[in-house]
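[Meeting: bench + compute handoff]

Bench side (C.D.) handed over the final construct sequence. Compute side (W.E.) agreed to return the predicted structure before the next meeting so the bench team could plan truncations. Sequence as handed over:
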Amino acid sequence: MPFYVTTPIYYVNAAPHLGHAYTTIAADVMARHHRQRAEEVFFLTGTDEHGEPVADAAHALGIEPQELADRNAERFRALAPRLGASNDFFIRTTDPQHEAVVQRVLGAVRDNGHVYEGTYEGWYCPRCADFKADNEIDEGNRCPIHHTELTREQEDNYFFRLSAFQEPLERLYEEHPGFVAPRSRYNEALSFIRSGLRDVPLTRHKLSWGVRVPWDEEHVFYVWFDALLNYYSALSYARPGTDLTDELWPASYHLIGKDILRFHAVYWPALLMAAGIELPEHVFVHGFLLMDGEKMSKSLGNVLDPFAVIERFGADALRFYLLREVPFGADGSVSTASFELRYESELANELGNLASRTIGMLSRYRDGGVSAGELDPVLGRDFEGLAETVRTHIDRAEMTLALDQIWQRVKRMNRYVEEQAPWVLAKDEARAGELDLVLRTLAEGLRAATVLLWPYMPVSCERLLAALGAPELSFAAAEFGAGAIRGVRALDSLFPKDLPPAGA
């Protein structure tokens, strides 16, 4: 079966920040892991370029929305390779091919009887591009995310008959309990559905920056319905001359932040049902990266610049930190202090030191050679079932739990070095066989763990595997004992501590 994973598409009303990097990194870990399993993988990311937030931000700068979209879309496009992301396509919702699919699919929704004219009145957040229900409004009539005062909007629209999908959505959640994860988000979405679905605006009449409604040129489609269809539309033109839809749809995983749960877990499946399109398999909802107790947000000014972190520490360090520090699926605080602590204590001291000691001892005591023979069952038992455990966690989008399992073995190998004390064995010729066993076992454990770490830190892991003389990255190679290390070569520090200060 192919594996198709998506990030949300990112709003271009401001430049990218660490929150955007977070989801892209998580999706890339999944994509790389599934490629290790020799599966056909398609990884999609991109930008959401229509709607009121983009138009307002552009007008505030005295430029046209398309100019702002072009400017910031390139910043997001540049972020992906800087993160080491291996995405197969980068979609922009101003792509004419995407707009044509939006018009076709939403036209089908109308033809199927799920669209009608009406007037909407409600409380609206321009930054969210979202009408808020009464139970979503903070004290002082404010948006719970941006803390700005909501505006009262009244507008003639075409409506999507969401209420018609009350029972089908309840049935979906009952029959497919893994459709939304983690469970807390499943319960949240189901609670929203059971509270009673109301029809929602499908179009905007007051706004011109969007995809034109083909049956009424005075309207554009509400940005959320335009944006949601990117996951489907991209497959029709991502590979020139080939439509991948039949091959890759439905998506295996949509990775999203919790602030857009309702759109992806309620509106999106209802829209697909209305159009007669198969539903995605899973929607996994992660939490917020928090600074000073607030969601990281450019509009709030509380951001860590991913480009600055990468410039000093490298993309692998950032990738590791975000999925190690914050359990994927939960909210979690991030800071420069906690990043530097993880970098030094775990990357430099635990993995980096383990790699340099292992390669150094093989070079010093065995001229870089690794003898053939049995492996120490003491360490081997600690690796039993590891690859399958990692596979199970990543199949559930539990990237932090998978990483923790691998890192436990990194720690275990550091203890193994201290327990076996190869430097003591090396002093006694009569114990040469014991030393061979320890060094061989240590090198094999490091190799197997590094194969499993590769989706998280691809550049560093490829360097380490090359130094071990065992570059194979396939998932089968992740089994302890499956390697063939023929000799090691020198390796510069994977995670040096003597980095220049920021801005140097």
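W.E. noted at the follow-up: The first helix runs from residue 18 to 36. C.D. will use this when planning the next construct.
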